[in-house]
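Trying the structure run again after the queue cleared.
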Amino acid sequence: MKKELIFYGVIGLLVGIIITGFAAGYAVNNNQQGTMRMMGMSSQIIDRMYPSGHEQMSMAEMSAQLKNKSGDDFDKAFIEMMIAHHQGAIDMAQLADGRVQHDEIKKLSEAVIETQTKEINDMQQWQQDWGYTDNEAMQMMH
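Done. Tokens:
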């Protein structure tokens, strides 16, 4: 009886480890930052994995962060968030290639990619011109 309990305990432990491994892998691969934090991953590690932190914010969250800012603080945060927002639109529009049924959606997605890319480039240049980022980071982006 005692050996049987130990056996079931070891099996339960192994199943728990396997489930935890799958959950952690899913969280990291799908940018589930809340789950990663809940599992004990430090914010510093998550911030290194997902540098700007704005990619997964909703528009309401971005707007809320801007409400109490003004001047350079507002401009810097606004540009960072808009770049992330525009990049999200580009990523979404790129999914349309080869998947769309209607030509209008194909044309729209192409226009989004073109215009949002130009605007990201403009905003990155402003960041550099106004000293909002270091030159080394900007050179890596270009």
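The chain has two domains: 2-49, 59-141. Worth checking whether this holds up in the mutant runs.
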